[in-house]
Amino acid sequence: MAEIVLTNTGVDAFLAAHPEFRGSGAARAADAVLGLLALRGADRAGGMPEPTPALIRRLLLEDLPAFVGAAPAELDVYPAVLRALVAGLDEDRRRRAEAALAEAEPDFARAMGDPGNLTWHRWYAQRLRADGTDPGDPGAVRDWLARLDGPPLPDGMRRADLMGRTALADVLLAEVLTRAYVRDAEHPPAAGPLLGDHDVAQGIGTVAQALLDRWTAAGLAEGLVGPYAHLAPGPDDFPHLVLADALLDEHLDYYGDPAVPLPPPESGATTAAGPAGGADVEADADLLAAAVDALAGPEGEDSGPYGSEAAHLLYTLYQRGCSAESVARRAAEFEDWTVDPDLEDAPVPVPPPGPPEYATPAAGELARLLGTPGLTDADRARLDKPARELAAVVDRLAATGLVFRHGDAFGLTARGCAAVRYLLAVRRVEVPDAAEAAAWPAATLVAAAEGWPPAPAGRVLGAWLAARDGADAAWGELFDAVGTVNAGTSDAASTRALLALLDWSAVPSGALHAALADPVAGARAAAELTARGEPVDPGAVPTAARALAVLDALPAKKGPLEARRTAFDTAAARWPGGSAALVAAMAAADPHETARVLRPLGVTLP
């Protein structure tokens, strides 16, 4: 690489005035600090760039953690260089700059140590220093790179994580350099330009590599785009990221936020991938991505109307906790058939492998799958074509070995579950495993499980309790969380629905008696104690808990309005004070759900 010099940054004058920074590591820090301040537009009229509060914060929290490699013992040098620069300011500017430096310095240390800020350059600069290689000796750096068999990874990190951060840092540095060159060309500074025309003519990317070599380790950036490029894979080495983006879009459609966790698969379903994923899971991700691309692209036109739904199918299978789904039921949903809400996410039994040809379930089985009584052979015949078309898409995915179809049931294999989990994690979707979810606080678990399909939600709630030996205190924490998470919001009813997923026969008697006074779980606790033959004081259960038990038992989502009205009238006839008192109690306990359930019945709310 031709020698490229970032000139007129004032670093020579700084080092002459501050000999304590003339050591190789300190001089590198001074070069990076003054160079980045100047590139960011710091005033250089005094010969050295002036560190304003805004530039100090940006330098410490954004630029240095993106572009600079340093050993932990060297980190203090960077704020020290800034302090030396700040000391030369007048009193008012010095006071403001010192305050900004004092505020940002602790976060600078955290940012420099945050694995999420690592690029390939910063990671290798850190590793080679730890191995005793001189970062100022390009020959030693090249020899060190030559000894590596493959990209070593920080604990818990993926190759795609470092690639993504590196690609972002490359774009940011190119933007900084371009803006600095244009700024100096349009308004030539008295201190002189930072970049010469000859340097920029070699390409902004070449200039950026030269600076990264100076700020991380000599010859490192050049080596990583040359003979050792395999040690720093770029976007072209990760074709599966297109599928990862599609899965992220699916998650955002469902939950609106990548931080909302998905239910963990059953224990052992993702062990092949490990927490960070390795070459095997990346290869599986590539297989899935290629299959999805083929189904959605022009060459996949023979896959029928559902070829473009492949990414959606993969996401929903994982979102179900990797439980099996029905081809016919999913085809019915795609065709806008009515499916019982209580069954739409229910797992289906997986039969032994059979003939490869797909056969739509018989009318009676189809009625059971959809929760729609009275389906006939004519109805089955109408669904046969869509179901076969969807089965063909599933079979194309199954050719990867990461999806299976046995009869009408299909799902992710253990490897497929691990691959989808990896793809979601690459895009920062929260995908805890069973052990992680079992360690959550009760409120965190309830907030997450409220949005999950019932089957995995019930399984994870049970595992959480089992991890605490089903103790009274654990049940109490869970009841309290169900009653407080989303309380007073439109999501309160779906949160309370978690109570129906619990095995009440397993609740210790002491926990049930303690729960009698709970304004949400009290009535359910009383019902369980009564079923066990234990006496219960009716006055121990709050009116709110009794009203919510009635409200949640009403058929709010299905059935004709006449049947819903009959159910309400029957409950009101048993309530002290009749319908008006019942409606008032319901509205006080949960106004959102009361309005949703009763307004369609023409019931007047208080």
Q: What does this protein structure show overall?
A:
The chain is mostly helical and 606 residues long. The chain has helices spanning 11-17, 24-39, 53-67, 77-86, 91-113, 120-130, 138-146, 159-186, 197-201, 204-215, 220-224, 241-255, 279-296, 310-319, 327-334, 363-370, 377-398, 414-426, 434-438, 442-449, 454-467, 472-484, 492-496, 509-515, 522-531, 543-553, 561-574, 578-589, 591-598; strands at residues 325-326, 403-406, 409-412. A three-stranded antiparallel β-sheet has the order 1-3-2. The longest helix is centred in the N-terminal third of the chain and has 28 residues, at 159-186. Mean pLDDT is 93; it is low at 270-277.
The best one-word shape is elongated
Radius of gyration: 32 Å
Instruction: Give, in spatial order, the strands making up the sheet with the most strands.
Output: 1-3-2
Largest sheet: 3 strands, antiparallel
Count the beta strands: 3
What count of helical segments does DSSP give? 29
Percent of residues in helices:
55-70%
Mean pLDDT over the residues: 93
Specify the structural class.
Answer: mainly alpha
The poorly predicted ranges are 270-277
Beta-strand content bin:
under 5%
Taking the alpha carbons of the first and last residues, their distance comes to: 78 Å
